[in-house]
Every structure is written in structure tokens, then in C-alpha cells.
Amino acid sequence: MSEVGPKVTAARYDFHGGIHPPENKQLTRDRPIRDLPLMARYVLPLHMHIGASARPVVKVGDQVGKGQVLAQATDFISATIHAPTSGLVAAIDDHLIPHPGGLAAPSIQLVADGADRWAETLEPWSDYAARSPTELRARLRESGVVGLGGAVFPTAAKLATGTAQVTTLVLNGAECEPYITCDDRLMREAPADIVAGAQIVMHMLGATQCLIGIEDNKPEALKAMRAAAKDPRFTVVSVPTRYPAGGEKQLIRMLTGIEVPRGRRAMEYGLICLNVATVSATHDAIVYGKPMIDRIMTLTGGGVKQPDNFRVRIGTLMNDVVAAAGGYRAGVDRLIMGGPMMGFSLPDDAVPVVKATNCMLSLRPEDRPAEPAPQPCIRCSLCAEACPADLLPQQLYWYARSRQFDRAVAYHLFDCIECGVCTAVCPSHLPLVDYYRFAKTEIWAQEREKSKATVARDRFEFRKERLERQKAEREAALNKKRQILEAKAATKAAQSPKPAGGVPGESQASTETVAAEVAYGEYRPSQAPIDTRLDSAVEAARARSKARRAALEAQRTEAPIPESDDESEEI
Amino acid sequence: MKFGTQSSPLSEGVNSVQRVMLTVWLALVPGTIAATALLGWGVLINVVLAVMTGLAAEAMMLWLRARPVRPAITDGSVVVLAWIFALCLPNLGPWWLPVFGAIFAVIVAKQLYGGLGFNLFNPAMVGYVVLLISFPEPMTRWGPAIDVGGGALNLVQSLAWSFSGALPTGIGYDGLSVATPLDHMREQIMAGAPIHAVTQSVLGGAGLARSWNLWLGAAFLLGGALMLWRGVIRWHIPVAVLAGVAGMSGFLWLIAPATHASPLFHLVSGATIFGAFFVATDPVTASTTQRGRLIFGFGIGVFTVLIRSFGNYPDGVAFAVLLMNLCVPLIDYYTQPRVFGHKTAGKLR
What we know:
The structure holds 2 protein chains of 2 kinds. Chain A has 16 helices and 18 strands. Chain A is globular and about 115 Å long. In chain A, the strands form 4 sheets. Chain A has a 6-stranded mixed beta sheet, with helices on both faces. Helices cover 39% and strands 15% of the residues of chain A. Chain B folds into 2 domains: 16-177, no CATH class; 180-332, no CATH class. In chain B, 63% of the residues lie in helices and 0% in strands. The chains are: A alpha/beta, B mainly alpha. At the A-B interface, strand 16, strand 17, helix 9 and helix 12 of A face helix 1 of B.
């Protein structure tokens, strides 16, 4: 074998903590990707990506072709949705979506006509190198491509790097969650599409190298990717099998040694990280003009008769997928979208596969650990040793539990990636991640309340100030008038005994009148300067309230006071 | 089809508080056997009395606090507390020492603070220190190693002595009790004897009679190794305690070798090894960060030597542990680990 070009190297860096839960990938790792048969009905939620909901561009009763746009992206961060097959738009209304709360949300329901006839699709661009990054991004946007690793962030928006110079494309093929094998299968079965997609993305970014990170429990995928990545700019990197090696930040750290802090984007460090399935979809969208109407997912767990990997059309109902896999086994009582570490439990299987659905895990009681009752925290710090974000989970737990949210924030609550490692190692079986989720949502709610209160207070203060100013102005004007009148009276009185002295007094009074009028006039609504004055007054009021907030903030960090007290003080 | 829900992660839950505590039980066995073999049945009587009293006190307090009794009793923590406490007691002490101490440790130092996980101070050490301060005389009733001719009591005799203070005819209390090496050191220093002679007699003396504390230390070391291997404790605290003891005593010894014992003497005498592995490592009352644990352990080592050398009490481990327990919130606050990404925050390309 030629040693020129692609290399497989071991990761040079590591991340702190992590665990090695039972992989359970053997259920599906050797099951090739299968196409599901055409279903009778598809349901496409309008909001299955990060960002704004898509806006329907079809009406109930419309006939649509496969790949036809059903709903258009409405914002920079939004994604277009396409028909997974040809058929009739049966309804546009609320339908159950994959959500832990069992929510229903606006969705387009499509009844397949069985013909699976393509609509007019986009022109295939095999000559992508001749296209500008802007054109290519527009194509990705039209094609509804989003990140398939789970975050479903619109890829066109992610690749709009602005002025940041991205030199390195990191491909995430780690797939560290137990059970899931969809990326593994894709890398083994279609590595060329991944490499071609990565080359397109590198062209768009002007990147000079591509690092492909794959956990070393996937030797076949490592081999296949190495064979496919002939391009000397590519390096296939084998990373240790340790959850969460596939976390974007953890993977970037292992491949490059760079730690991307919270609140910073990888592109600021010259990096972009994409999932292998995302670049594969990018390739399809650009080279074949194929919109994102399907994805690969793993249906697995002891709760289904035949765990398998499927190429499944977006919108396929989960119960249809399960039926295609031979149905459930007796006793199944959990259905989880995603993996066991970060996935969420679905109360119902009448939900569609969405762009984020990389895995559906069905479990019977015997397939999953028992839920032992929580015991007190014994401060053993196993959580801190396992935390990939180097946090002190037991401190965060303590503060979340006692609702000392400001302390939790000081202990970097928002650096928590909710990977679940702390919960997994906790000898007291505390649902730690639930506490962090709770604390985060409480803090967000407080922030919202606070910003509402701030706006209300700013408005109130501005109004008060405006009223005071108007009052002062009125008084000033009255005073002027009175002065003028008095002056006039005085001049009149003076004129009668001393007529010669009248002229200077008169002229002085008249200039004063003019000045007063000008001054008064400045506050007339019709006058031009009012806008700037208004603005500067608002600015001043804001600056004052900001200073007050800062003072309060400082006070709070010095001595933690209950949140509610703060609120009442501020309002 | 409908499903039940559960929040992620669906963790394995293989580890548990019980598993941690049972491992500590197991680790205490070699030391307890060695102590019983070397110091007589009194050790075992202390352990059994303290554990039984501790369990009863814990159950009563949980009942009074209207908390579920079963999970707290079965987590094994109160047994660990009482057991460690009992091993600190003199082997010829009366029955009420372990009973009273265990009651105080469980009720005041543990349950009144909120039970497992909430206590600031190591309850076993609180129990021990309360006894030491309140009943200084019974707390010095140390007997000889078991092979000292004619000085040992069998189980029945030990029970009789513990409960009624009755001794078999022919054996007097004075014949039974001896000074511990640390007491011996203090007495000798006060008497003006050269320190190296005293420590030599402990370290290099012939027979079990002289070197029983070495054997005891080895047994506790074995238990500590077990806990390290099973991942119940981490190396930081024991290593830091031993380093603190060695460092501080070495410093004093270098300055004034005539009046201070050698580091080796400090390392093997008293409760140094037991304290380093079993007492200071109590996770609830120790520091929780890695750097913090090093500071915490080192502080215990330093205070132990200082109290032994300049204080009024023979051994300083218990006081040192309680002093450092006080510092834990401070230590934890200032030794927070660097959070992922926070180092490179300013290093933008």
C-alpha cells in the first residue's frame, strides 16, 4: 500500500475525564445501510433545525414532487424543507414531534402517491470548484442541509465564516455514544462521498487541511476513510474510544490541542468541525443537486426484533420504521431518540424522523440499568474526575439544589455540555444533569424577567426624566416671560422719567426674548434637534441604570443574596 | 405506542455508596485483625460496641428527623464511621468510651449537620476528640502488645475488664498498661533523655513488644492499598499527609535533632498511617479538588507533627484533621480546576 498521501495517526492530545460505557454497537455495526420501503404518509415538522421555523410554500391539496420545496427557510439561521416523495399535501397543522414533553408542533403532512416522482431538482454541479463559496452556500441553503451530528445547525450559516480565516476542517466521525452506528456504516460504505464533500467544504472555506477524527473502536471505518482520502491534505486520526470524544470541543482538542472556550466559535481559531454525514449530504446537494430528504439512522436496542441501520426519508413515522425492522419485542417500555447518554425519552412513537434523528433506541427493562434511588452526595469527586469540561459537578449540584444560581454560574455552570458523564459515575445515583438543566432554565427565566424589568425601568426613568425636564422648561419659559414682562414694565417705568435710556434696555429685552424663544423652540416636537436630544437622554438614562445594575451585580457577587430580594430591589 | 420516559443519561449505576462503604469495611479488616492480635480483645470489643451504638443512634436520629431509616442504615456509612472511631480508642478503656463517643459522633457530628454528606467535621474524629478532652484519663489506658508475658487478657477477661473493671487475680492495672511510643517520647523528652535513644528503641527495638506499631501500620497500609486499587480513595490525600508529616518533622529534626524525633519515627508511630489512609480520606469532610486534596493532606501532616511536638496531647492527627476540615471550603474555593477552554480564552488567531 502506498504511504503517500493519507495518513492514519493517533491523536496527539487528550481531553480530561470521560468514561467508557458499554458500547452495545455490536447490535448494528455489521448491518449494512438499508433503504426503507416507501411509506404511505410522511410528517415534516416546520421546525426541525436550529433557528427560525420554515414557512410553508405549499397549500393543503397541492400535488408535490419528490424533492420539491415544502417550506422555505425564513431567516439566515433556518432551513428549507423538501418533500421526501411525491404526493399530496394532506394537512398543515399540529402533529406530535420528537420532543421529551410529547409536544405537537406545526407540520406538513404528505400522503405519498406511490410514484416517487422527482420534481424538477437543482442542477447538478460536478464542477463545484468553478463556483464561488457564496453560490455554494446558497445551494446548501436551498437544499436544506443541516448538521447531522445532532445539533442540526444550518450548514450554510455555519460555513459563512465572514472574515475569519479557516485553515482546518475537522470531520467528526468519532460517534462516541453507545449503540449508534450510522456514521460508522456511512464511513465504511460511502467514504468517497464524505471525502468529496469535505473537499467541497475546504474549497468553500479556503481550508488547507482536513483532520478526520474516528474512535479506535471502528477499525473498518478508519481503514475505509484512509483508503478514500487520497488527498494529501487529509489526515485520518484515530482517537481513543472514550465518551464524549465526539463532542465537538473534545474532538478539536484531541486533534489540534486547541481548546475552544465557551462562547467562542471554532472558526475564531481557524477551525470548522462538521459531522461526516453532514459533508456527505453537502456533497449530494452540490454534486447531485439532491436536497436533504433523507438521512441514515440506527434503530437499535433490545426492544426491537431486528436492530438495523436505515437510510430513512425525513418525515417517516417512527412506528413505520419499527414495523420495517420487524416490530417491537415484548416488554419494550422506553423509546429514546439519540443515544443513551444524551438522547431523550419519547412518550409516543407516532412521531416523524427528523433531520436530527441519528438513532432510535428502544429498551426493555432488562436492557437498561435500574434507576436506583438517589442517595446523599458524599463529595467523592468521581464526577469531577470524569468531567470532560473540567468542572466541579458536585459543587454545581450543591448550588443548583439550594437555588444559589449565581454561585452555580460562578462555578461555570454554562460550560457544562450535559454529556451525562457525572451522572453515570455518581455512586449516589444523583440525577446531576437534571439539576444542571433545571438551574440553566431557571437562570434563563430570571434573565428574561430581568431584561423585561430593565426595559420597563428604563422606560419609567426616561418618562420621569422627560416629565421633569418639561416641567423645568415650562418654568424656565415662564420665568423668561415674566422677566421680559418685568423688564418691559421696568423700561416703561424708566422711560417716562428718562426717555433717553430706553433704547439699550429695549434692545436687551428683545434679544432676551429671541434667546428665550430659541431655547423654548428647541423642545418643540417639530424641531430637528429633538431626535438627538431624545437619543442622548435615553443614552444617559441607560448608562445610569447600567451603572446601578453593575453596582447591584457587584454587591451580589460579594455577598450572595437570594435572587428574589434582588428583583424586588431592582424594580 | 406509548412509552415511559426517563431522563438521560441511562447510566449504568454500577458504583454505589454501599459499594464504596463495603470496600472501606474490607480495607479495615486487616488493620482490625492486626490490632486485635497485637493489642488484645479490647480492640474488638471497642469496635463492636461502637458499631452497635452507632447504628442505634443513627436509626433513632433518622426516625426523629422523619427520614427514611432503611436506606441510610444500609448504606454502610455509619458502620465505617463507628469502626474508624473505635480503632482510635485505647484497648483497655471502659465500655462507655466507645458507646458515648459513638453517640456523640453520630448524633452531633453527623446527624445534626444533616446526615451523610452534610457534616463539616469528620465525625469519627469529633467523637475521639470529645472523649480525649472530656475523659483524658480513661483515654490513656493503653495496654501492651499481646506477647508481653503475662500481661494479656483473654476475651472473657477483657469483657469483664471493659464492663466492670474487674481484673483476674494476679494481674494489676499497672502491669497491663504501658505508655504508647508517643507518650514514651514525651515523657523521655520531659525527663531530659536524648531523643535518638527513645526513637531508636521504637524503631529498632527487638520483638513485637517494641515494634507493634510497625506491624499495625503495615496492616493499615494494606487496607489503604486495597482502597486505592478499588478506586475508593485517590492517592492525593494519603501521600500529602505522609509528605506533610515527613516534611514538617524533617524540618524540625534538621534544626534540632537533639530534641525532635526523626521523620521515620513520626511516620510509623501513632495514627499517622491510619489517619492518612482512613481518616483524612473521608470524602465528605475532605477537599474535593485535586490540588485542594494535596493542600488538605499536607496541612494535616504538618499540624500533626506540630501538635505532637509542641502540644499537650500525645497524638495530633485528630486535631489536625479537624483543623483542616475547617479549611476545606476555603481550599476548595481557591483550588478550582481550570475549566475547559478558559486558558486559551485570550489566545485568538
